[in-house]
Design goal:
Nucleotidyltransferase, domain 5, alpha/beta, 310 residues, 5-stranded mixed β-sheet, binds zinc ion
């Protein structure tokens, strides 16, 4: 069966696999993301080579590779920019992989890749337009319109996490201030907890900040303020996106949602309250697929070698 090599390049880990034409995901390899470029590229190459060794009967060697990655993919499609958690800024990754593996390489923003995977195989399969919001380390977004990801004029659409929630507010890793991501991104939540509540053994997680807010400790009101800001920002950014785009369905996912019991329902209720009936009456909310196979499916779709390409 025909296959492509698919990758999910994330800020903390990278996953690679073969995706076959029946959507099955084979031979997943996962490596932690390191910040040093040469070491990063070495791990990436070794993970991919181990996938390709001794392919099981019935699976052909991949005809193309597709990577979903954090950051913006410039129009030439060959590199990644504005990916603060990957050591690849401006690096010609597509050419690098093509030189080593001899197959064409497609790069796709990971929010767009996830959304495409959700549209193809997820809980909101086939619902169009489909809006996917991933509250992870940062905020990822993907919009599917007429069966394919919407990319914008310069391949840069969707950075709604870097629009303003509170003018002049908290600094954002992108260099701006008051952005949604600096209130409801997972990294912002845990960094703010460290700054305002003090260091915690093993470090803060979104879940531990939420627990601390309800713990009745002297610093619990500070944790509650962090949690309230995060919920308010998450509701506002989702409601804003729904009002702008009028999607048929919204897929919610990411570590902030999975690590914070109750947030998803609070978000759904908040969005219904903050939007007009035209927007929310028929709106379907769906859980994102567990794990990150959605990114692998989307990255595989982007190659155009297994399923229709936009
Ligand atoms: Zn920002």
């Amino acid at each position: 069966m025909r296959t492509v090599l698919a990758g999910d390049l994330g800020g903390t880990k990278c996953r690679f696999a073969l995706v076959s034409a029946d959507y099955a995901v084979h031979r997943v390899q996962q490596v932690p993301t390191v910040r040093e470029r040469a070491a990063f590229l070495d791990r990436l190459e070794r993970a991919m080579r181990s996938i390709l060794q001794d392919l099981p009967p019935g699976l052909e060697a991949p005809v193309a590779a597709g990577f979903g990655t954090a950051g913006v993919i410039p129009l030439d499609g060959g590199s990644i920019s504005r990916a603060p958690n990957l050591p690849l800024d401006g690096f010609p990754l597509a050419q690098h992989v093509r030189d080593r593996f001899g197959i064409p390489v497609t790069l796709l923003n990971d929010g767009r890749a996830s959304a495409w995977g959700e549209y193809l195989r997820g809980n909101a399969k086939g619902l169009d337009p489909l809006l996917c919001l991933f509250f992870g380390t940062g905020i990822g977004i993907g919009l599917i319109v007429e069966g394919k990801p919407y990319a914008g004029a310069a391949n840069a659409a969707g950075e709604i996490g870097h629009t303003v929630f509170r003018p002049g507010g908290r600094p954002c890793p992108c260099g701006g201030t008051g952005h949604f991501e600096s209130y409801c991104g997972g990294r912002a939540i845990t960094e703010r907890a460290t700054n305002e509540l003090g260091a915690r053994a093993g470090g803060w997680t979104v879940g531990s900040v939420v627990q601390h807010a309800g713990a009745g400790a002297p610093t619990s009101p500070l944790a509650q303020a962090i949690v309230d800001d995060a919920a308010e920002a998450a509701i506002a950014v989702t409601a804003n996106a729904c009002t702008l785009l009028n999607p048929a369905a919204v897929v919610l996912g990411g570590g902030v949602i999975s690590g914070w019991p109750g947030l998803e329902q609070r978000l759904i209720d908040g969005v219904r309250a903050a939007t007009t009936p035209m927007i929310h009456e028929r709106l379907v909310f769906a859980h994102s697929l567990a794990g990150s196979d959605a990114i692998l499916w989307g990255a595989a779709a982007a190659t155009g070698a297994l399923w229709p390409r936009p």
